[in-house]
Fold this sequence. Notes:
The chain is α+β, with helices and mostly antiparallel strands. The chain has helices spanning 12-25, 94-108; strands at residues 2-9, 31-40, 43-54, 59-70, 73-82. The protein has one domain: Mog1/PsbP, alpha/beta/alpha sandwich (Protein Transport Mog1p, Chain A, 3-Layer(aba) Sandwich), CATH 3.40.1000.10. It is built from 2 helices and 5 strands.
Amino acid sequence: MAQYQIQLQGDVEELVAHLDQQILRGSVSANIEDGSDLRLGDARMVVRVYERYSAFGGNRVSLGISILAVAGQLAVAAITAGGSQAMFFKINTVGEQSFLSKAVEALQSFPGAHG
């Protein structure tokens, strides 16, 4: 499992659209598996789960992105899972790291990434 966190500024809808475009464009086998959009008072939490095939590991890897949005402030956590063929412990996390790097690039290229 690999993880990345960042705080941004901006519109959550624009960030989600940006992530969808960048992550899906990054791999021919990438797709959106599911998502959720919750509100509690002024807070909003958007979750996206992406998945793609990892040729290096010969299996599928998932990427979950959670976005907490409050008054233009965005806290984002990206976590990957999968990508190992071992039964009891992970011996190959290249697919996870590669998928996470696509998410990091997408997040850092968002216009509100200076925050």
